[in-house]
Amino acid sequence: MKDLFCPFREQKQRMQKGQRYYVYVMEDEKTHRLMATAKVERYQKHDGYQRALDFSDELLRYLQENGGHCDLGDKSPSEDIALRFGVSKKIYKKSVGDLYRRRLITISDEGITLV
Q1: 59/44 Cα distance (integer angstroms)
Q2: Within 10 A of 71 (CB to CB), how many other CB atoms are there?
Q3: What integer pLDDT is reported at residue 48 of this predicted model?
Q4: CA triplet 15, 34, 16: central angle to 5 degrees?
């Protein structure tokens, strides 16, 4: 019996003994054995940086639709950010930083403003 089973249909390329592969490990529902898949994309979650980039686009649209200004800044309470945008303060700050580095906004004590 194999220690870790990876069916051919779950391999991106034919796996070779002694080589290393990045796999997602789960329990097979039928046999209750450990099973692996090399097709890991469907199990990966967006990392925080990617989520921040996705939200950056949303924040940019918000600014364009609201006169180019948002009164929430770096020091705004996380509850206010979550209520308005539905994201954490960490994601908000990463997105603001991304837009600032791209020179699309300015940051002040009154919030952020579209350039």
Answers
A1: 24
A2: 11
A3: 66
A4: 10
**CA 81 – CA 74 distance, rounded (Å):** 10
Q: What pLDDT score does 45 carry?
A: 64
- Report how far residue 95's alpha carbon sits from residue 51's, in angstroms, rounded to the nearest whole number: 9
> C-alpha distances in angstroms, 87 versus 2, 38, 79, 105?
44, 31, 10, 19
Query: For the residues of 27-90, what is the DSSP string, one character each?
Result: E-TTT--EEEES-GGGGPPPPHHHHHHHHHHHHHHHHHHTTTEES--TTS-HHHHHHHHSS-HH
Q: How many CB atoms lie within 10 A of CB 115?
A: 11
Using the predicted structure, report yes or no on whether residue 59 has a pLDDT greater than 90.
yes
Q: What is the Cα–Cα distance from 51 to 53, expressed in whole angstroms? A: 5
Q: How far is the C-alpha of 102 from the C-alpha of 53, rounded, in Å?
A: 12
pLDDT of residue 50: 75
Mean pLDDT of 6-29: 88
> Residue 46: its pLDDT value, please?
62
